[in-house]
Write a structure and sequence with these properties.
single chain, mainly alpha, elongated
Length: about 130
């Protein structure tokens, strides 16, 4: 319940910050006031909307940071040990066992026959490499 409430507050604060930033005028907009365009901003008083919107943005930014830290605390409080997605799903993959021969070893059916003169079970005589 607490997590859901914090998430709603967090999304509300994020959306409100975006809207307030888009409503504010940039610093370059003050240059137009010298040429007679400043009369359109008198709705919020002589100082304009900058102070009220800036203060609201700062308050919502503080709320956003508090909800971010609170969500981090609430999420980490219930976690005991990190788990993988597969462990949470209840299936853990079993490693496959390879039946292929290792690299560099010859399969049994392709083994070289023993020398004709050697006895059965006796080790074969070493073969000299070709020159």
């Amino acid at each position: 319940m607490l997590h859901s409430t914090l998430m709603v507050m967090h999304f509300f604060a994020a959306g409100s910050i975006i809207l307030l930033v888009l409503l504010q005028r940039g610093k370059g907009a003050d240059a137009g006031a010298g040429f007679g365009a400043g009369a359109s901003g008198t709705v919020f008083g002589a100082r304009g909307a900058g102070t009220a919107l800036s203060r609201a943005t700062a308050i919502l930014a503080a709320i956003f940071m508090i909800t971010s830290l609170s969500l981090t605390y609430v999420s980490s409080r219930g976690a005991s040990a990190p788990t993988s997605v597969l462990e949470r799903a209840g299936t853990v993959p079993v490693p496959a066992i390879s039946t292929a021969p290792a690299i560099g070893t010859a399969p049994a059916q392709n083994a070289a026959p023993a020398a004709a003169g050697s006895a059965k079970g006796a080790p074969a005589a070493p073969v000299a490499p070709p020159k």
